[in-house]
């Protein structure tokens, strides 16, 4: 019933609009049609509206940009992020100045040179100096922007230092998993997608590689502050993309092609909470490459902590092998004892002796 | 049918003997459906394009409802969307992705490529260069019907139980290759690929025709440097299309192989749905390279015709020659060339070699220079003009404004260091919707309003045109400008909802504003629709040259028949922008007026040309009605 009334209402309104349109048409015909459209009021109204539009929209633009600045800018918490943010704002100033000047000039011309009876437009087909000027000036400005951008890009993409903290991020529909190299050998073990199974080996860990024994899994991404971090990124099924908005980090996760991104976090979670005055603040990792139904929910919590706290956290984590002892069968017999020791399933006799001696 | 065809071709080659062919009447089928007349084909493209634009716009409003009003109960959409509305009255997340995908596909290919280029290249090329029809009317007809076939297939895919393609309009594999990954990659994706193959065929048939016609069929005196900028734009567009669409074809074909025949072009090391797939050695990045090798030129395939149309309209309605005619051609040429070597700026953070990133950043920012030149030239054309705000002119001004606003954000995104943060956020959405989507859409609208008198022999209602313009102009800005802020805040695109993230928990207000603006903007298009169809039948009869324009199409009869000109095709003696020439009686001199008839306004070097006009039979002045 309600929808019927709505439909009737819509039909009625459309009917009235149509009648107004018809009456308007008839009136204009009765008046003798349009004699000279150019000098009609419509032309003046349109010209004036462009000025109203220009003033209104530029006003809104500046008002919102300044008054809501803290809502749309994310705090930055990485070294290179500060740099790219600077570039962003430099580019912003350069382009906004150009944008405002060109807009004002254009809309003022539009208003100023609206049709006037008896005036003739200026025959001005070209002017090489002008054209040269506005080819060269943008070219120079852009060259400067390119140059600064290139330098930043080369820094960001240069190889990571040897002592960078390596962490592997594995993407799958629709979750992130991190793999840490473990505290004993500090190296990630080999993986192969063919070894992935449904029973626990979600990384496809190759247990014939001795580096894999102490690797551990985490569903939270823990990062040390002020230390170079190298994220090794891979995907199991489709494309995903690692996005750490506060660290200005983004890199796709590609099945069959491991990618990486190096950066240095500058603020711990706690520091950021204090800075923002928000005790509930948390860093987050999001997926930014469309990956299917759950794309929008593919989140990983991120914790940045002091280097000591980070080391303590790492030491407290159980090796993956310890959590999945069934996979000991896959370890070659010769390495089995080393595996038990590395995974923390059995005390290292040698180490105990050494500790006692100390 | 065949006889008419042959006669027509004779016509084209011998301008002189034509009389009896102009008024041949076909039956309904040959005149309106399987027509070979470029004007009818153009209208077919236009009407189909309008249909797709409405559908594409409606899809966007549906997903904007989800984004702007996440708590809204959408049960009332059940009669239309059926099972895609969950029992809780929400939009299904997978269908959301399908909506986004189809919106992009429809708008980019079916509206702004076929609807824009197909309509105006077909309509204006023969009319403005002085030809009776396209080089091959038959190929031209095929071009439309392949497009139609493609449209039908794409349309049917909307009604599949598993939904249409849902992996984004860029259809990146492996998502688009694996039906296990998303439902839309099943039959929906297959139909998407088949439809696109037909689309590519259509586009190539069209482009070959446009190029051939422009090169071979210009009328007497219509040298390349006397061609209107519209024709230059269509010419470059067709060349770009011919060079880039086959690459998309190759990309799609390899994807078909991967999907259906077990090859591994794009797939490698995949574990999905509890099993490791056998594919090894492929690269998803390869697809991205191939896709964007078309995808980036595609931006200019969409944009250049719009720029061409608006150049013409702005010059006509400013009553001034377009400023820097040669610079405009040069910048279009430069853009056309550069458009092929910037594609990887879409891939800065895909894991591509960073050195490649540097190169592509350099090339990308270079392309900003010719674009800037175009904007400056438009503004200078307005300077000291005598501007007449027809609806076409309003939309052209809108285009320049969008091109500026959206183009400027390209400088951020082309900078790879800045792009790290902005990539795949709403900043990108704002950028390309303004610079490519809205600018081109406004170019198309400008074209429809400006050439409506030639299309249908009647005038549109200007007042409704003004209302349509202002609602759409302000509406588009209200939709896309706020997205810059949302993007700077890091909001990723193609998200069904942001509430899972604290970081992206704000901006409910802006998102609501965007959605409301989108609904208003879409509603405003119905004013246009009414105006369009009403004026087609009941509009005021159009005068021969309603905008007092210089180009050849306005020398044809009010409703030109197949063959365009009754009698001889006019010859061309001057460039198309003799507006407000000092000394001239009127403020425009059509291209077909010889210099010998305008001694009062000729420039010194033009007086020299008078001799050539009278020198020999071929170049002689053709006085109307006379035969030789």
UniProtKB/TrEMBL annotation, chain A:
GO cellular component: plasma membrane
Keywords: Copper, Electron transport, Membrane, Metal-binding, Respiratory chain, Translocase, Transmembrane, Transmembrane helix, Transport
Cofactor note: Binds a copper A center.
Pfam entry (one): COX2_TM
Residue ranges of every copy of the Cytochrome oxidase subunit II copper A binding domain listed in the record: 162-316
Cofactor(s) needed for function: Cu cation
Family annotation (Gene3D superfamilies): 1.10.287.90, Cupredoxins - blue copper proteins
Superkingdom of source: Bacteria
InterPro entries xrefs: CcO_II, CcO_II-like_C, Cupredoxin, Cyt_c_oxidase_su2_TM_dom, Cyt_c_oxidase_su2_TM_sf
Compartment(s) of residence: Cell membrane; Membrane
Catalytic activity: 4 Fe(II)-[cytochrome c] + O2 + 8 H(+)(in) = 4 Fe(III)-[cytochrome c] + 2 H2O + 4 H(+)(out)
Enzyme Commission identifier(s): 7.1.1.9
Transmembrane segments: 6-24, 45-66, 86-111, 132-153
Main localization of the protein described in the UniProt heading: membrane
Any GO molecular function: cytochrome-c oxidase activity
Residue intervals of the Cytochrome oxidase subunit II transmembrane region profile domain: 66-160
Enzyme class (EC, first level): translocase
GO process terms (BP): ATP synthesis coupled electron transport
Membrane topology: Multi-pass membrane protein
Keyword S-adenosyl-L-methionine: no
Family: Belongs to the cytochrome c oxidase subunit 2 family.
The protein's role, per its UniProt record: Subunits I and II form the functional core of the enzyme complex. Electrons originating in cytochrome c are transferred via heme a and Cu(A) to the binuclear center formed by heme a3 and Cu(B).
Protein's UniProt name: Cytochrome c oxidase subunit 2
From TrEMBL, chain B:
InterPro entries: Cyt_c_oxase-like_su1_dom (IPR023616), Cyt_c_oxase-like_su1_sf (IPR036927), Cyt_C_Oxase_1 (IPR000883), Cyt_c_Oxase_su1_BS (IPR023615)
One annotated GO molecular function: cytochrome-c oxidase activity
Subcellular location: Membrane
Domain annotation Cytochrome oxidase subunit I profile: ranges: 23-573
Bilayer topology term: Multi-pass membrane protein
Transmembrane spans: 45-67, 95-120, 141-160, 189-211, 231-257, 290-310, 322-343, 355-373, 394-414, 426-452, 464-492, 512-534
Similarity comment: Belongs to the heme-copper respiratory oxidase family.
Name under which the protein is recorded: Cytochrome c oxidase subunit 1
Organism: Chryseolinea serpens
Lineage: Bacteria, Pseudomonadati, Bacteroidota, Cytophagia, Cytophagales
